[in-house]
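Question:
Write out your own:
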Amino acid sequence: GCAATRVVLNAFAAPETIGVEDQALCAGIMGVCSDRTLPFSVLGLAALRAARGRAVESSAERVEPADLFLAAHQRLPRELLARLALVPDLNLAGTESPERARDSEGVAPEGPFFRPFSGEALRALGASSRAAASLGRMAIGPAHLLLGALEADPGLRERIGLTPVRLRMLASGLDEDTTPLPERHLPGDARLLALL
């Protein structure tokens, strides 16, 4: 075959380079719903990591929707935080559940990322993806994680005094995370360079 065909086959079909290529093309984690797959935005991914970190630091047994809510809340745009500050009975101290399960070992800092997420937290991620998709967004951001956490955990809604409908109204026009993706480079493959 021609050199161009060999370049394409080598670049896109070599099993040992697929992981590196995939990592360069996909900067984060994807959220999958029944009808759409969306990536987490830069700040959405930071919120996921912070939620897991919060569970690790508190020796919690699982990552809960309240962890997602608090971590995402800390990454909201200033304008949305200002709108939330106007909500009369908003009680962010309610993110701490009195019956939170603690474990002597707690959530491990390493290992499969989503394994320590509770069933409710995983449902919150699915609801976050649906929220972002319904708003026509290309990624799941912090505001969508807040919506998902409220959708998945009625106790959280009650403790903090905020419903998903009210949050959706407050976040109108401010839910999209426009943080640019970090620059990523694919390393050159010596075999490809030799071929060229």
